[in-house]
UniProtKB/TrEMBL annotation:
<dbReference type="InterPro" id="IPR003439">
    <property type="entry name" value="ABC_transporter-like_ATP-bd"/>
</dbReference>
<dbReference type="GO" id="GO:0016887">
    <property type="term" value="F:ATP hydrolysis activity"/>
</dbReference>
<dbReference type="InterPro" id="IPR015854">
    <property type="entry name" value="ABC_transpr_LolD-like"/>
</dbReference>
<dbReference type="InterPro" id="IPR017911">
    <property type="entry name" value="MacB-like_ATP-bd"/>
</dbReference>
<keyword id="KW-0813">Transport</keyword>
<dbReference type="GO" id="GO:0005524">
    <property type="term" value="F:ATP binding"/>
</dbReference>
<dbReference type="GO" id="GO:0022857">
    <property type="term" value="F:transmembrane transporter activity"/>
</dbReference>
<feature type="domain" description="ABC transporter">
    <location>
        <begin position="12"/>
        <end position="233"/>
    </location>
</feature>
<dbReference type="InterPro" id="IPR003593">
    <property type="entry name" value="AAA+_ATPase"/>
</dbReference>
<dbReference type="GO" id="GO:0005886">
    <property type="term" value="C:plasma membrane"/>
</dbReference>
<keyword id="KW-0547">Nucleotide-binding</keyword>
<dbReference type="Pfam" id="PF00005">
    <property type="entry name" value="ABC_tran"/>
</dbReference>
<protein>
    <submittedName>
        <fullName>ABC transporter ATP-binding protein</fullName>
    </submittedName>
</protein>
<keyword id="KW-0067">ATP-binding</keyword>
<dbReference type="InterPro" id="IPR017871">
    <property type="entry name" value="ABC_transporter-like_CS"/>
</dbReference>
<dbReference type="InterPro" id="IPR027417">
    <property type="entry name" value="P-loop_NTPase"/>
</dbReference>
Amino acid sequence: MTLHSEGHALAISATGVDHDYGKRPALHGVDLSVAAGEMVAVTGPSGSGKSTLLHALSGVLRPGEGEVRLGEHVVTSMSEDARSRLRRTDVGVLFQFGQLIDELTLAENVALPLLLERRKRDDALATAKAWLARVDVVDLADELPGEVSGGQAQRVALARALVTNPGVLFADEPTGALDSRAGDSAMELISDIAAEEGLTVVLVTHDARIAAYADREVVLRDGRVDADESVGAR
């Protein structure tokens, strides 16, 4: 069992991405490039298209128009099954509320992506506990999600997102459910692991303090890129 594989950060590019929800427009001709190993924060007011862009980049949805590339993969040309497999292998996704499964222990939650890939249970749990140690909550491995704090649960969700050694991490408001202290702690952990692993990171946030952890900030407004500028290295 190994904790991580040789680094394989993935570059991301989006060209002419449009998407509507029925008659409600969400994205209009978005062009975006993210270098391998870069951390980019996507910000903007509510309804500006931040989460829709994240879902398009990560293959959760196929946009109505445009092309998305993730490394060598043209995500927008892939079937739903192929995109799902890509998210299980090359992509990690971290959500605002963690979305842990209440009935599973924390170790089982982290091991789940490996078990879905048919890894042996003992090996999957050993890898999961190694990642729980990496995020400083291995002593809680046998606890249930309802028995730990929000900050601890988000660390577990981060471990689950990274347990398959993805090349890119997509984080949708990863500190939105945390107080400022727990949020800063979570972002410091994400930044440290991203730097150590050479991960590409795209995070959506409404918090300028959280965006400052990134290398670049991309501001969306009314579904369009309104600004794209450096905000300081991790």
